[in-house]
Amino acid sequence: MAARQPRFNQALLLDTTPLPSSVPPVAEIGASSAPLLSAAYFIGARCRPFNDDYMQCKTEAHGRGEFECMLEGRKVTRCAASVLEDINKNCLEEFRRHWNCLENNNQQLWQCRTHEWKLNGCVYDKLKLEKKIPDAPTNETPVHLRKRQIYSHNEPGVIT
To answer: Model-level pTM greater than 0.85?
Structure first.
């Protein structure tokens, strides 16, 4: 047995310092990891210019620049929120099926390909956003389009 009793220092820390007036307020997205993962490639497709601006700002600030890059960060948040809003308006059922599948399968994308294909089709038809994996080999079928997922516990074409 240890002679010393453990001490836990857990407290909720809130920074009440107001942001500068030059940084416009933006609402938080308020989504958990499964819906964000489900929509991640579509957010990346539409919001790439804003993401690039934000990352350039952070690079030029040498990893700092929390306040200097806040404006670009807010633009990224607004763009991501608009993508989620559009997906919810146009493809809600497919979106829910896919992110619920991700939630129930430990966020493993390959377990939910059948739902993903339906979501990808809906988002492309209605929003003209396409899932593209960056730096994927051009001479191979992309992993998300393969009919057989090697590690999936689902048979190809079977929807759970």
So the answer is: no
